[in-house]
Structures are given as structure tokens and as C-alpha cells.
């Protein structure tokens, strides 16, 4: 099991290669979409690089559970309801959802996903 | 001019790799319009050739029945110049295929000389997305079937187990007059 620093270094390398950003832009608190300008197709690229780098398999919806965010049982008027929040917590134990829960607008989830969340996701996968 | 940037497949192994060729001719308009007085094959069109070869390989993974589009050119390097009379050989390899898209590594050679390298990502949009977005499908199955036949996919194509691909295994016949 790699250390936290080793995971961060590999995640940073994947993000630098996939997004064309500089090393120093990839900080733990940087958001993928907001700060690093990741677009939806970039997530395919990032996941591809993480799978190769860590020798793991990442299924669709594991990193970003879009199925919850498009399910009308969990989303009303563009906001995730209480059941949806519980489901997100269950599916995203690696992410800090505190900020999202304060204003659970669907679009905010992607905007608030950070490099640290991604490192936690990899650690979570490696520990599984 | 038609938007065909590969002439023929010489190898097509489902889910694995493919090899396609394109002959570069002085009769093609783009040879004269890219650098006037100095005809070369534009690298953008070589990229399109690699993308078409990889795209058909990926599309097969979804049964040739869904819309697959080039989403991202993650890497592209070019090393030489391609001139009239050259034959480009495109080699594409499926690096990853998922339910939401695929990654393909591609090269272009002239003879033994490496000309281009690329890493391409394709997005799988599903069966109905184009109709949702544009009010019509972008591809008619019959058009795709015609293209696959022109470039010899079913002449050289084999499944992962080595058995020949069969056109009848794919939904390529017109099922409706609605586009």
C-alpha cells in the first residue's frame, strides 16, 4: 500500500498529463473543475491514467455517482434531497461532502470535487 | 471531397487492434491548399485518419449500434513530413474500453519511419443521444455499413477468438426510414 505522499504524487502526475496544468497548480485543495478546468471528457482520461498508474479498475459512477444525481428519487428542483445525501455519503466515503450538503445543488458536486478527494478515492480503492 | 481518411483496413481484431492504410495522392485538394507550392499531407488529416481507424475499432465494441465520438486528443506528436506518393499506415490499439468511453493509442508510419503518435479518447453517447440533441440520428445504419464495407472491415476483421467477423452480427440494415 503506497503512502499518502506516493498516492498524491501519482495523482498529480495523472492530472498534469491529463489536464495540461503545471505541477504547482495541483494542490490538495484545488478543485478539479473549478481550479484545474477539467471537463467531462477529461474524467475519462484521468480515470484511464489512474487505472494504469495504480493498477486498479474504476467502474463508471464510482468516482462520480452521476446515476444518483439524475435519479428523481434523490433529486428535486435541482437539489439533492436527504435520501440522496445519504446515498452520496454511502457511495462517496472518500469525499468531504460538508460544503456540498450546505447547498446541495446538483451542479455543485462536480465543482467541489478536490484533488484531495481524488487521492482519498484512490486510497479507498487500494484498501478495498 | 468525401470525409474518408483511411482507404482500407489490412487488419482488424475486435477489442484489440487494427491496421489501416491510406495512399497520399497529388490529386487531393488539401495537398495543394495546406502549404502552397510545397505539397504535404496536413497533420490534422493524419490525425483524422488515426481517429477514424480507432473510432471504428471502438464503435465495434458497442456493436456498431451507438454513437461514438472523438472526445479528446490527449497526445499528438509528429516527426516528419508526409509527401505525395507516400503510403500512411495507421496502427491503432485499444488501451481501455469502458461503458462510457474508450482510449486508443495510435501511430502513423510511412514505411518503417514513425511519423505520428497519438492518444485518443472516445465518448460513448449511446443510441438515442444524437436524436435527442439534433432531432435526427447522425448516422444511418446503412451508411455505416457502406463505409465499413468500403474500407474492408468485414474482409479482414476477426473477433477476439480469431473467428471471422460477420456483417449479419451487427445492426447495420436500415430498420426505419426515419433519420
Structure in words:
The complex is a heterodimer of chains A (128) and B (179). Chain A has 128 residues and is mainly alpha-helical. Chain A has helices at residues 4-19, 40-54, 66-69, 82-91, 98-102, 106-112, 115-127; strands at 75-76, 79-80. A two-stranded antiparallel ribbon of chain A has the order 1-2. In chain A, strand 1 and strand 2 (79-80) form a beta hairpin. In chain A, helix 1 (4-19) packs across helix 2 and helix 1 packs across helix 7. The relative contact order of chain A is 0.19. The model of chain A has no long low-confidence stretch (mean pLDDT 94). Chain B is α+β, with helices and mostly antiparallel strands and 179 residues long. Chain B has a single domain (8-169), classed as Roll (Thiol Ester Dehydrase, Chain A). Chain B contains 5 helices and 7 strands. Chain B has helices at residues 30-33, 43-61, 129-134, 141-150, 153-156, and strands at 8-13, 17-23, 67-78, 87-97, 101-110, 113-126, 157-158. In chain B, strands 3-6-5-4-2-1-7 form a 7-stranded mixed β-sheet. Chain B is globular and about 45 Å long. Classes of the chains: A mainly alpha (128), B alpha+beta (179). The interface between A and B is small, with 11 and 12 residues.
Short description:
The complex is a heterodimer of chains A (128) and B (179). With 128 residues, chain A is mainly α. Chain A has seven helices and two strands.
Amino acid at each position: 500500500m503506497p503512502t499518502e505522499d506516493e498516492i498524491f504524487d501519482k495523482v498529480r502526475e495523472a492530472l498534469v498529463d491529463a489536464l495540461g496544468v503545471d505541477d504547482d497548480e495541483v494542490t490538495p485543495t484545488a478543485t478539479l473543475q473549478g481550479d484545474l478546468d477539467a471537463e467531462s471528457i477529461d474524467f475519462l482520461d484521468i480515470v484511464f491514467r489512474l487505472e494504469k498508474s495504480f493498477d486498479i479498475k474504476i467502474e463508471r459512477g464510482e468516482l462520480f455517482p452521476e446515476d444518483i444525481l439524475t435519479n428523481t428519487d434523490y433529486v428535486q428542483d435541482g437539489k439533492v434531497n436527504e435520501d440522496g445525501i445519504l446515498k452520496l455519503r454511502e457511495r462517496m466515503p472518500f469525499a468531504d461532502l460538508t460544503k456540498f450538503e450546505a447547498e446541495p445543488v446538483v451542479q455543485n458536486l462536480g465543482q467541489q470535487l478536490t484533488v484531495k478527494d481524488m487521492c482519498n478515492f484512490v486510497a479507498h480503492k487500494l484498501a478495498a | 471531397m468525401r470525409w474518408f481518411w483511411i482507404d482500407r483496413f489490412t487488419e482488424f481484431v475486435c477489442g484489440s487492434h487494427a491496421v489501416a492504410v491510406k495512399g497520399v495522392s497529388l490529386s487531393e485538394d488539401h495537398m495543394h491548399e495546406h502549404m502552397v507550392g510545397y505539397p504535404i499531407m496536413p497533420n490534422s488529416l493524419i490525425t483524422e485518419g488515426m481517429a477514424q481507424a480507432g473510432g471504428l475499432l471502438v464503435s465495434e465494441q458497442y456493436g456498431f449500434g451507438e454513437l461514438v465520438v472523438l472526445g479528446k486528443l490527449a497526445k499528438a506528436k509528429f516527426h516528419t513530413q508526409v509527401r505525395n506518393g507516400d503510403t500512411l499506415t495507421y496502427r491503432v490499439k485499444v488501451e481501455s474500453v469502458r461503458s462510457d468511453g474508450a482510449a486508443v493509442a495510435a501511430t502513423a508510419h510511412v514505411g518503417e519511419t514513425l511519423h505520428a503518435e497519438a492518444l485518443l479518447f472516445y465518448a460513448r453517447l449511446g443510441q438515442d443521444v444524437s436524436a435527442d440533441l439534433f432531432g435526427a440520428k447522425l448516422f444511418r445504419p446503412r451508411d455505416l455499413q457502406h463505409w465499413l464495407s468500403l474500407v474492408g472491415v468485414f474482409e479482414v476483421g476477426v473477433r477476439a477468438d480469431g473467428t471471422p467477423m460477420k456483417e449479419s452480427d451487427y445492426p447495420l440494415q436500415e430498420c426505419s426510414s426515419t433519420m
